[in-house]
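Notes, p. 3: input format for complexes.
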Amino acid sequence: MKTPLLTIVVPCYNEQEVFEETSKQLTLLLEDLIDDSLISDDSKILFVDDGSKDETWKLIENESNENCYVKGLKLAKNVGHQNALIAGLEVATKHSDCVVSIDADLQDDINVIRTFVEKYIEGFDIVYGVRDSRETDTFFKRSTALGFYRFMGKIGINLVPNHADFRLMSKRALEELFKYKETNLFLRGLVPLVGFPTTKVYYDRKERLAGESKYPLKKMISFAFDGITSFSIAPIRFVTFLGFLSIIFSLIAGGYAIVQHILGNTIVGWPSLMVSIWFVGGIQLMGIGIIGEYIGKIYHEVKKRPRYAIETDLYSINNSIELLNEVVHKKV
Ligand code: UDP
Ligand code: MG
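Output follows (332 residues plus magnesium ion):
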């Protein structure tokens, strides 16, 4: 088997503080892997600039001029981590045999990429990086994440626990993944649906190199909510179930009231009336809200809007120039 061409895709949003170090470490890793003949010497690192407002793109562009392993992809505006990642994966897949995705802050141990590649060579199409410990994350982030995986498992969404978007995928697995055209992207939920031989590699998660988490609580909640409502109708079922319960409850309460009335114990009904109005009203509002959430999803999906727009693609441009040079040289 010829050595595979690997591309490492790194989405970056305002990552000027970490870029240099990340690029340095990944380059060293790539060189090591090339020296050991694990990957082809055409392997690359593709930095995707997700509409950063700082100097990130400038740094990427400069680096790509100086470092033959580094390529850049600039998106026209900020589209969020998942969309930026799929943009990078789509461009990288055109040129590669396998692609690794990793966050720019290097919280994930880059040394396991070697194991990823070995597993790929063994014949695995998807290799998940799974965090062994999350000690460097805050207690809050750890416990909410754990709760999230448990809850997702309960309502029947298959996720690999403690796996973020650090994984290797083969070209054919990625090509299958791209057939999922949904706008509400939740890659961690989609990748397991693709199939193919799959394995996991464990590692320790580290502190962010520098800069701040781009996932504040608000984004985390909306990410979790998207994950749930994109993959499951369990919440709608739950509302139906609540409605059913409340009907039974009100029947019992009604029966009780009639009996009390017959027995002559008529009680002033104001409090119970108020309570039940609030109760039923609450359930109705919640139900409408959740149904609305799904209708909102349908609304977004039917529009079939593009997930991202590419402003500059240094990967494909440079490759075409190289190809052109080769042709010209051959003719001369
Ligand atoms: N990111 C992105 N677009 C965004 C937000 C984040 O491309 O709108 C990138 C970010 O640069 C990083 C990765 O997604 O490489 C994960 O973000 P972060 O490390 O802030 O998340 P956390 O590890 O705290 O969950
Ligand atoms: Mg991070």
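The first strand starts at residue 6 and ends at 12.
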